[in-house]
Amino acid sequence: MTLLRSTSRDESNVEAEDVIACVIDNTPINIDAKTITPFKCVISSAGTLQQDNQTAVIAIYGCWLPDHRLREYRYIMDQLFYYVYHTLDKLVTNDYILIYFHGATPKHRTPDLKFLRKCYQMINFRLRKNLRSVYVVHPTRWLRTVIALSRPFFSNKFYHKINYIYTIAELERQFPNNQLSIPVAIEQQ
Q1: 112 located within any domain
Q2: Which of 41, 86, 95, 121 counts the most CB atoms within 10 A of its CB?
Q3: Residue 153: per-residue pLDDT
């Protein structure tokens, strides 16, 4: 990840912001680093699977997503999506597993169906192909319904990669000795 910092003003007298320069689907994108800084903890690498030491484990925490009542919510979510995508692209070289922690996520931080569909459509073939499984930890009835309603937008292969995990104990059985950093609020559910 390249972080470009500019301390001078350009000729149009607009202050330059910190950006993360990346390429998504052959399109150069400048991610607004200042906007996403409070939300960078949404994604983290949890190492690799103990069984093969090659499959990356990536954690996404719903409780740290932006509040959809924020005035610039759509802009923040777009920038955050680019950041997550860019991070995945850098972390994933082979197969990977995605663990989405939904526990302790208030309703006002849950992304809507439109945003989820857009994310799925923007993910390139390599990332879709290398995704081994998606684990949804502490899914609510609402989230399971949204995923079920989204099925027409997902490929059958992708839909069958989705697994629900209802307890932290079940997660620990599935991923023993993994370096998952689980927020206290999620552990208490």
Answers
A1: yes
A2: 86
A3: 83
CA distance 22 to 86: 7
Q: What percent of the chain has pLDDT over 90?
A: 42
pLDDT per residue as tens digits for the range 114-147: 777 778 888 888 888 899 999 999 999 989 998 8
pLDDT at 176: 75
Number of independent structural domains in the chain: 1
Q: What is the dihedral of CA 84, 88, 91, 92, to 10 degrees?
A: 170
How far is it, in rounded angstroms, from Cα 80 to Cα 42?
Answer: 9
State the residue range of the domain holding 145. Answer: 34-187
Please name the residue that has the structure tokens 């490929």: 155
Q: CATH number, domain at 116?
A: 3.40.525.10
pTM of the model: 0.83
Do the domain assignments include residue 18?
no
Predicted pLDDT at 9: 33
CB contact at 8 A, 136 and 102? yes
